[in-house]
Amino acid sequence: MRIDKAKFKIKKDNGQAALEFTLVIPILVIMILVVSQLGHVVYLKNILGQAAREGVRVISTTNSNHKACEQIRKVCSTLDQDRLSIKISPAAGAHRKVGDVVTIELTFRCGGFVSLVRMLTGKDILINVESSMRMECY
């Protein structure tokens, strides 16, 4: 009886693909999370930009800080309102007159996956948006 040595040949690369996959998959998952989080930050910046434009438009036509804040909060209704701060300058409606420039600055503290950056660095990730318009009424 003759033994065929080819049948009993031991493969040295057995399991190599599984090991490579195991080493690469965490890096791929982290990259996917980072890209999706960056997309979410861009989405937040777009929402805040629209809210700032709407708010400054309301102030320039009505000279009402209260109505502007309501409009900003309405546009940002899907966001956590506790992390949103609104700054209007000049602050008092009595100090504004036709032709003056009104500016609204919105600041939003990011949460979610970005919170890891805060844990590592001790600093919040902030999104700042500003919009200005000339007053059209008193």
List keywords for this structure.
about 140 residues; alpha+beta; Pantoate--beta-alanine Ligase, Chain: A,domain 2; three-stranded antiparallel sheet; 3 strands
- Provide a count of the helices: 3
Mean pLDDT: 85
How do the SSEs run, as a string of H and E? HHEEHE
Q: Strand sequence of the main sheet, in spatial order? A: 1-2-3
Give the termini separation. Answer: 108 Å
CATH architecture: 2-Layer Sandwich
- Strand content is 15-25%
Report low-confidence residues grouped into runs of 5 or more: none
Describe the structure.
- The protein has a 3-stranded antiparallel sheet with strand order 1-2-3, covered by helices on one side.
- The chain is rod-shaped, with a radius of gyration of 28 Å.
- It is α+β, with helices and mostly antiparallel strands.
- The chain has helices at 16-62, 65-75, 115-121; strands spanning 84-89, 101-109, 126-134.
- It has one domain (16-134): Pantoate--beta-alanine Ligase, Chain: A,domain 2, CATH 3.30.1300.
- α1 (16-62) packs antiparallel against α2 (65-75).
- Helices cover 47% and strands 17% of the residues.
Write a brief caption for the model.
With about 140 residues, the protein is an alpha+beta fold. About 45% of the residues lie in helices and about 15% in strands. The protein has a single domain, classed as Pantoate--beta-alanine Ligase, Chain: A,domain 2, CATH 3.30.1300.
